[in-house]
């Protein structure tokens, strides 16, 4: 009869048995080595079993769309992606669809500053899952939850990308989705380059028409009544290199050297606590300039809309955008916009109400954490300064631009058009 210790000994890999023979106290060494090997083997087997369960659950079977609609995203975060998830959920509700929500803010380490407006899906509810998170977060979430929410449901990924070519590292995420929606045609074109033939990629911009239109309230933000207020806003988590605040600062300073009307540039910054060195450098750059004011307070979507409504011009010299939420919100609020004339924002910035800045396409550099290759736009700061100076000084022209925003026919601003686009993408019986 073979003893348990001898049986364990015989199951050990040969290198472990050989090293134990040479060691002092070989039986004890063999037992400890065997125990460690079995523990490692058990962990490996458990990981493989979890991966197999995940793959079974997330395997795409092209299920027909059904209700309810569950939006997975950063619902509780003051963040552009969070606002996008909240807007989509409101759009589905406006279409008369039952909406559920799953907040992943804490899952990725974002502060949960806002309540989630919709309940989570019930244990027996299936329907459609729309994950408003990009592939790196989607792959991690599916792995760590073993794809539990995706099993038995049609799954639509809502992804945004800011450059012409989507990262090859995103390709495995297509295995988890039945189709992909994007906020812009620009982003859709980038994703189609790496999408497998079975996965359809379609733009469905955000339903901006649902956003409130608050009245201007300069006193609330301490803004001077008789000054032209130029607003730029950016999230340092979206990288300062892409948002290019220093380019906007230089253009504003050039524009205001010779303007007759006084102007104030308000820089609304998000993520300053996460990137203190970047924010400190920016603060030092503008510390002695009374025409530039930094704001780092956390604002809700409603408060941000009030700040935008209290401004005269919205400025963005970004290098690339996957949608351009602030610019779209500004147009919806009747504000003239001045921005780099490249990437997704050109889809809704029409020449009647907006000014596009000339640019050159340059290689991406200095931002390897997120954007590692490709090209993006370098705005012509002289062109931006000339156009901004005219907007500041020519009040009649500025009012003409503002009035023209009401005629902007982009789908983001048109309720019937957006609802029709949704019904085409999500045919429900």
From TrEMBL:
UniProt-recorded Gene Ontology molecular function terms: transferase activity
Family matches, as SUPFAM superfamilies: UDP-Glycosyltransferase/glycogen phosphorylase
Matches recorded under Gene3D superfamilies: Glycogen Phosphorylase B
Superkingdom of origin organism: Bacteria
Pfam families named in the record: GT4-conflict
Keyword Transferase assigned: yes
Keywords for the protein's UniProt record, in alphabetical order: Transferase
Name of the molecule in the record: Glycosyl transferase family 1
Organism: Caulobacter segnis
């Amino acid at each position: 009869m073979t003893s348990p210790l001898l049986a364990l000994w015989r199951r050990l890999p040969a290198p472990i048995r050989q090293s134990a023979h040479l060691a002092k106290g070989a039986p004890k060494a063999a037992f400890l080595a065997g125990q460690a090997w079995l523990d490692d083997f058990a962990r490996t087997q458990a990981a493989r079993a979890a991966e197999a369960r995940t793959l079974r659950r997330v395997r795409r079977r092209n299920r027909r769309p059904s209700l309810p609609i569950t939006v997975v995203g950063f619902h509780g975060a003051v963040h552009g992606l969070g606002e996008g998830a909240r807007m989509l959920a409101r759009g589905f509700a406006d279409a008369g669809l039952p909406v559920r929500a799953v907040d992943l803010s804490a899952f990725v380490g974002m502060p949960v500053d806002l309540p989630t407006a919709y309940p989570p899906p019930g244990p027996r509810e299936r329907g459609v899952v729309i994950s408003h998170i990009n592939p790196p977060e989607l792959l991690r979430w599916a792995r760590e939850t073993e794809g539990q929410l995706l099993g038995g449901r049609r799954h639509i990924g809502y992804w945004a990308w800011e450059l012409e070519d989507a990262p090859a590292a995103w390709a495995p995420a297509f295995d988890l989705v039945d189709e992909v929606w994007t906020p812009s045609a620009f982003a859709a074109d980038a994703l189609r380059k790496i999408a497998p033939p079975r996965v359809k990629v379609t733009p469905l911009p955000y339903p901006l028409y649902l956003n409130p239109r608050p009245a201007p309230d300069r006193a609330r933000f301490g803004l001077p009544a008789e000054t032209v207020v130029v607003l730029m806003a950016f999230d340092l988590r979206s990288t300062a290199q892409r948002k290019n605040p220093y380019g906007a600062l230089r253009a504003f300073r050039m524009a205001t050297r010779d303007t007759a009307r006084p102007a104030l540039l308000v820089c609304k910054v998000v993520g300053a606590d996460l990137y203190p060195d970047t924010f400190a450098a920016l603060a030092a750059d503008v510390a002695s300039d009374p025409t530039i004011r930094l704001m780092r307070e956390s604002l809700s979507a409603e408060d941000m809309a009030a700040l935008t409504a209290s401004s005269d011009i919205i400025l963005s010299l970004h290098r690339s955008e996957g949608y351009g939420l602030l610019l779209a919100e500004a147009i919806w609020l009747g504000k003239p916009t001045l921005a780099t004339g490249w990437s997704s924002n050109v889809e809704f910035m029409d020449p009647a109400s907006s000014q596009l800045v000339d640019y050159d396409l340059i290689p991406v550099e200095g931002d390897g954490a997120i954007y590692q290759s490709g090209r993006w736009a370098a705005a012509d700061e002289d062109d931006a300064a000339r156009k901004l100076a005219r907007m500041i000084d020519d009040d009649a022209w500025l009012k003409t631009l503002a009035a023209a925003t009401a005629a902007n026919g982009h789908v983001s601003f048109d309720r019937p058009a957006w609802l029709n686009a949704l019904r085409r993408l999500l045919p429900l019986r």
